[in-house]
Amino acid sequence: MRSTLRRQASLKSTSGSARSGNDNQLLIHALTTSTQSPLLALARRIADAGCNLSESRVATIGTETSLMLLASGAWDALAKLETALAKLTRDESMRLVHYRTGPRENSSHLLPYLVEVVAADRPGIVARIVDFFSQHGISVEQLNSTRYHAMQTGAEMFQAQFTIGIPAEIHIAALRDDFLELCDGLNLDAIMDPVKF
To answer: Of 82, 110, 157, 192, which alpha carbon lies 20 to 30 A from 175's?
Structure first.
């Protein structure tokens, strides 16, 4: 009986240490010219170090490519990755920043919504929208925005997509009404819908 209890305790501690191994994370941010994307080089070094690529964001902005990668693994595997990244920074023509971070707090109380905005381009649109969300305690999880020329008229246009996290206690219909009223006042065409997976 005692040996069975010892074995169960040992299994629990082993599984606990395995879980805590995944708590070790390294956030990597790289910037380089769009013709020399370091995505393959970084993905290989993450794999070679024995780490997992937990999350990634890649975007070309202007003439530059921006990469945000989150690697996870055992403490010594991340240390090996940090050494590899230091060598890569010396060898490649890129700006690279990396640092240790931890797992994100549980955000199950946040409801994911997608907000899309289209308007004639002018300064301050993003600032006004983000300020509205901030005043309501709503986090902006992702943002993609661009300027373009309308095909038919050549007018300068602005388009943005926000993924936001709305606290569950907020009344959605009232929030949507307030947001659309703001957009009407700013002459923005906007929608707010739940994210569908």
So the answer is: 157
Does residue 147 register a pLDDT over 90? Answer: yes
What is the mean pLDDT of the segment spanning 49-67?
91
Asked if 162 and 183 touch (Cβ cutoff 8 Å), the reply is: no
Strands 52-61 and 110-120: unpaired
Q: So what's the pLDDT on residue 38?
A: 85
pLDDT at 23: 73
- Nearest Cα neighbor of 197 from 146, 161, 163, 160 is 163
Q: Is the pLDDT of residue 22 over 80?
A: no
Does the pLDDT at position 15 exceed 70? no
Q: Could you tell me which residues come within 8 angstroms of residue 104 by beta carbon, excluding any fewer than 6 positions away?
A: none
- Determine contact, residues 42/30, Cβ cutoff 8 Å: yes
Contact (CB, 8 A) for 53 and 71: yes
Check if the beta carbon of residue 8 is closer than 8 Å to that of residue 72.
no
**Can you list the positions of beta strands (E) in the chain?**
25-33, 52-61, 64-72, 95-101, 110-120, 139-149, 156-167, 189-194
Q: Encoding tokens for residue 96? A: 């690279």
Q: Which of 144, 95, 153 is nearest to 120 (CA)?
A: 153
The H or E element that residue 10 is part of is helix 2-21
C-alpha span between 174 and 71 (Å, rounded): 39
